[in-house]
Amino acid sequence: MRHLAPRLRLHWAVPLAALLVATAKTAMAQSLTLALAATPTAVDPHFHNLVPNNAIAAHVFDRLVHQDERQALTPGLAESWHALSDTEWEFRLRGGVAFHDGSPVEAEDVAASLRRVPAVPNSPGPFTQFVRGIDSVEVLDARTLRIKTRGPQPLLPTDLSVIAIIPRRFETASTAEFRSGAAMIGSGPFRFESFTPGDRVVLARNDAYWGGAPAWARATLRIVPNDSARVAGLLAGDVDGIEAAPISQLDALQRRQDMRLWRTTSNRVMFISFDTFREVTPEAAARDGQPLPANPLRDVRVRRAISMAINRPAIVERLMSGQAIAAGGLLAEGFFGASPHLPPPAFDPDGARRLLREAGYPNGFRLTIHGPNDRFPNDEQILQAVAQMLTRVGIELRAEAMPFNIILSQGGPPNHAFSAMLLGWGSNTGEASSPLRGLLATPDRGRGLGVANRGRYSNPALDEIIIRALGTVDDGSRRALLEEAQDRAMADQALVPILYQVNIWATRNTLAYVPRADEFTLARFFTPAH
């Protein structure tokens, strides 16, 4: 069975002509310069499952299965695939595809890539969740491989749409070898030329690309986290397009005849994660500064109070200028498995105070929350707004904004230094199984579960539903299980959803782009406007 993600509900119309892929001969010699908002942590395509990393990798490396702009599955290196049984799949590779060094792409390369994923050391966000269910990979011939799973795994093609295929000789290559460029050889639409950390990635067109050569002879992806600097570069003509167009400047960009905006609903939810694991959490204290005898975040009443204290409509309208959607679940409406039973919780500060009293905190308590200041649209502003809202109901919240790489290194294993964090999660697969198994399943790296569960939340009853959903072949039954899992998680307030993002790109009016739910900024899909 081949799972196709459903059509997403778009909130802004995109001109039809802009959706047409144009590779006119006159454009074939041009260069393209794009400004990225998020800083990649690595170019090794198997090291860290992070959107900026994955987007850069998608320029250089192919996957067996691709996702379109709405995360529907399309053929990639595999021209076809089918299930032989509930636990056995066969993939047939395209013929005549070569890596950038001229060596053929064969089934042995796919097998080596799948073996490498769980073997990459020290990953802050491993890809193991996508290969966890694979029992064996059998190469039948150069173009055919058979994958056996430990149990029914209907999402195998979807999971494999996240795994980059590398030449087999780089199976044991280190992350440093990718960073140097020595191992950056793929079969994708662009060849790797250079990576300057914190500055840029330079790519050259792969004229032999099986999907058609890109319009651009060279693509430069500049890393520009500062919102004003990205816009300034666009207005000055230093860059041709930018991702994460800043909300504060959208009106000004929209009024310009020489600019265009491209928007779609994101697969990302912004949320608050709690330390629910430790009996005493390091950054919570009584209002007088004295230690608390127990971790208040382990009490569901406290977590619900935090959710009720957040005025989501105010954040969406005032901070995000309407360019977001108030969230009550893990995935926006229109994505597979998004629960229809989870509207945004009502803003109820009196109810929040009542729950805090019931939980034994009539005077509230002190808490520190950490969040990024360089990763998501208006992330620091959202963090500060949440702090103000919670302080009004008695939780004296101190907000600490910092670079995203520090959040990742200090907030997760092995440090677990924080008690509460503002984070974001984008669904690689375009369905609710991604945040459920990544964020809320009890951490079990061997099974690829809870790989981003930084608060170490654990609910065995929820785990059982998630695991059942991952092994359910029938789409209707799996959808019901995914909805049930989200409903149970939110009943326990396992985390506090705040908003679903809207992805926004700005380009010069000479360009067209197909906006993507996965946030990927892909040079191949920027085309000359006609």
From TrEMBL:
<protein>
    <submittedName>
        <fullName>ABC transporter substrate-binding protein</fullName>
    </submittedName>
</protein>
<keyword id="KW-0813">Transport</keyword>
<dbReference type="GO" id="GO:0043190">
    <property type="term" value="C:ATP-binding cassette (ABC) transporter complex"/>
</dbReference>
<comment type="similarity">
    <text>Belongs to the bacterial solute-binding protein 5 family.</text>
</comment>
<feature type="signal peptide">
    <location>
        <begin position="1"/>
        <end position="29"/>
    </location>
</feature>
<dbReference type="GO" id="GO:1904680">
    <property type="term" value="F:peptide transmembrane transporter activity"/>
</dbReference>
<dbReference type="Pfam" id="PF00496">
    <property type="entry name" value="SBP_bac_5"/>
</dbReference>
<keyword id="KW-0732">Signal</keyword>
<dbReference type="GO" id="GO:0030288">
    <property type="term" value="C:outer membrane-bounded periplasmic space"/>
</dbReference>
<dbReference type="InterPro" id="IPR000914">
    <property type="entry name" value="SBP_5_dom"/>
</dbReference>
<dbReference type="InterPro" id="IPR030678">
    <property type="entry name" value="Peptide/Ni-bd"/>
</dbReference>
<dbReference type="GO" id="GO:0015833">
    <property type="term" value="P:peptide transport"/>
</dbReference>
<dbReference type="InterPro" id="IPR039424">
    <property type="entry name" value="SBP_5"/>
</dbReference>
<feature type="domain" description="Solute-binding protein family 5">
    <location>
        <begin position="73"/>
        <end position="441"/>
    </location>
</feature>
